[in-house]
């Protein structure tokens, strides 16, 4: 009995469909963002997505205030479902392309197509950056978490991007080691809904140490900055200030606290050994390493 002849396989599979993101896609986009959510990050809300799509968020750092209105496209699967999303823009002052964020459930083919689509839309010969600024979709996450998102990291490298900057993303939980009881040396200054500033003054008046912490969002607080003047280091002041910062956050509703340790030189000093030792000793654990990227 003759065997059926299989149908010929097309030499080139049809390219996935990409189109602009619409309001009807927002639910699917939120699901894609949430699929990549890290420990210590809140669930992305419709308000956060709206800010990311329209560039309405007020961020302390980054390029969101100096870029053109971002463009966001979605990738559709065979059944017309949204399988990926990518957002990019252009920085007018130097013409650089900016891949702001993308999500595709870490499916290698999906994220590679999203990267290729963004670059093709920007122009292949334009210098480009990727994940080089915090987006409104997260609680200040400044770059790509490479351990949790290896497919995106690989797609960027395959497209010619290389690492530009790195951070250590760390988390402290209330169920872990509790902040040590310590004399509250710092003056706690409210900054309204934003959070608090903790300031320690030396005996002669000038600041000796300072910290800035963000008010909890969905039970997640953040240590944004902690610094000790050179003349007051090596005496435990930094540890005491950090403990007071943690107690301030936990006393105001935080269940966990996050921070980012950047690896960039500050004031000519690029050794983060002391800072990492401080956070490790306080009970913070590393969640991921974060990378931003550049393509000449």
Automatic annotation (TrEMBL):
Keyword Cytoplasm among UniProt keywords: no
Domain called N-acetyltransferase: residue spans: 146-296
Superkingdom assignment: Bacteria
Region of interest (Disordered), ranges: 1-20
Record GO terms (molecular function): acyltransferase activity, transferring groups other than amino-acyl groups
Keyword set includes Transferase: yes
Keyword annotations: Transferase
Family matches, as Gene3D superfamilies: 3.40.630.30
Coiled-coil region list: none
Name recorded for this polypeptide: N-acetyltransferase
Top-level taxonomy: Bacteria, Bacillati, Actinomycetota, Actinomycetes, Kitasatosporales
């Amino acid at each position: 009995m003759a065997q059926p002849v299989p149908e010929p396989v097309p030499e080139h599979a049809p390219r996935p469909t990409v189109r602009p993101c619409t309001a009807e896609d927002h639910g699917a986009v939120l699901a894609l963002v949430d699929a990549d959510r890290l420990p210590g990050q809140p669930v992305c809300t419709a308000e956060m997505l709206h800010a990311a799509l329209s560039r309405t968020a007020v961020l302390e750092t980054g390029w969101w205030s100096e870029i053109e209105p971002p463009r966001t496209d979605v990738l559709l699967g065979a059944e017309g479902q949204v399988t990926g999303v990518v957002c990019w823009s252009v920085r007018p002052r130097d013409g650089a392309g900016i891949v702001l964020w993308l999500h595709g459930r870490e499916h290698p083919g999906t994220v590679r197509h999203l990267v290729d689509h963004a670059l093709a839309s920007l122009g292949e010969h334009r210098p480009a950056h990727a994940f080089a600024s915090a987006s409104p979709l997260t609680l200040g996450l400044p770059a790509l978490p490479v351990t949790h998102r290896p497919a995106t990291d690989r797609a960027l490298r395959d497209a010619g991007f290389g690492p530009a900057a790195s951070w250590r993303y760390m988390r402290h939980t209330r169920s872990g080691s509790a902040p040590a009881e310590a004399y509250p040396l710092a003056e706690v200054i409210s900054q309204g809904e934003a959070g608090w500033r903790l300031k320690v003054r030396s005996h002669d008046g000038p600041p000796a140490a300072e910290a800035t912490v963000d008010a909890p969002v969905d039970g997640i607080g953040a240590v944004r900055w902690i610094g000790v003047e050179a003349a007051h280091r090596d005496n435990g002041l930094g540890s005491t200030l950090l403990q007071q910062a943690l107690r301030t956050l936990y006393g105001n509703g935080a269940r966990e606290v996050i921070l980012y340790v950047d690896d960039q030189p500050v004031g000519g000093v690029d050794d983060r050994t002391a800072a990492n030792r401080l956070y490790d000793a306080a009970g913070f654990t590393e969640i991921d390493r974060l990378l931003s990227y550049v393509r000449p």
